[in-house]
Specification:
7 strands, seven-stranded mixed β-sheet, Rossmann fold, 10 helices
Length: 248
């Protein structure tokens, strides 16, 4: 897994910057409940999306939380006084504290299914009755856009996805939540040179940098044409789940 303290400085530039943040925020906002007054962006990263959520809903108290010290430091600069360092598996908030909880690009990072289940349970726990949890699902699948990069990387070792939509729906149901909508947004298309750089820094978790297999894939990526031309952009999927009114 990437070291997100080290990633923080270049995180926004490598992941689409403001355009992708704007698309993500717009899609999340479309799934929030009417009258939402408190929102938690769990695993908020640098706060690039969190800031847009807060700006779009000036009457909503938006709080960001992230486990990485460097990520929270950058997020706090964007939302002074509204960011805490916290683990989504053990959120430091009381039951029913928020009208909405958002987890963008988080669940796929969990090494075990039990951890995703714990995150879902915590997001549900801090939701008020009628509140909504909005999360990305199927992230790895979204990155497969049928490009020549995907063809090169198709034979790499795969890890089991932890954010499969059906699994996340089951965890949400187990935590007392019901489906409340779905959406999506466009990400950033990857070029061969960018894919090679991602490979070199450990983005493909089953191909550690320096490993012989990683070097083989690196050579194939370097041989692709149009090294700086971005291939089609992925479309990330969102799912929303609601805590029924009157739920405890």
């Amino acid at each position: 897994m990437l070291d997100y303290d080290q990633e923080a400085e270049r995180y926004d530039d490598l992941r689409g910057g403001e355009p992708r943040a704007a698309a993500a925020a717009e899609a999340v906002l479309a799934l929030l409940p009417d009258g939402c007054r408190t929102l938690l962006d769990a695993a908020c990263g640098t706060g690039i999306v969190t800031r847009r959520l807060a700006a779009a809903r000036p009457g909503t108290r938006v709080v960001g939380a992230d486990l990485s010290f460097e990520m929270t430091r950058r997020a706090a600069a964007r939302l002074p006084g509204a960011v805490v360092r916290a683990d989504t598996r053990r959120l430091p908030f009381p039951d029913g504290r928020f009208d909405a909880v958002v987890t963008i690009w988080l669940l796929h990072l969990a090494p075990h299914a039990d951890e995703v289940r714990a995150m879902a349970a915590e997001c549900a726990r801090v939701l008020a009755p009628g509140g909504v949890w909005v999360t990305t699902v199927d992230k790895a699948a979204a990155h497969n856009v049928g490009s020549d990069i995907d063809a090169v990387m198709a034979s790499r070792p795969r890890s089991e996805p932890r954010d499969a939509a059906d699994d996340v729906a089951a965890y949400a149901a187990g935590a007392g939540l019901v489906p409340a909508g779905r959406g999506g947004f466009r990400g950033q298309g990857r070029s061969p040179r960018r894919a090679l750089a991602d490979l070199r820094r450990g983005w493909f978790v089953t191909l550690p940098p320096g490993d012989a297999a990683a070097e083989s894939f690196a050579a194939q990526l370097a041989a692709l044409p149009d090294q700086d031309r971005a291939r089609p952009a992925p479309r990330f999927a969102l799912r929303a789940f609601r805590r029924p009114d009157g739920a405890q």
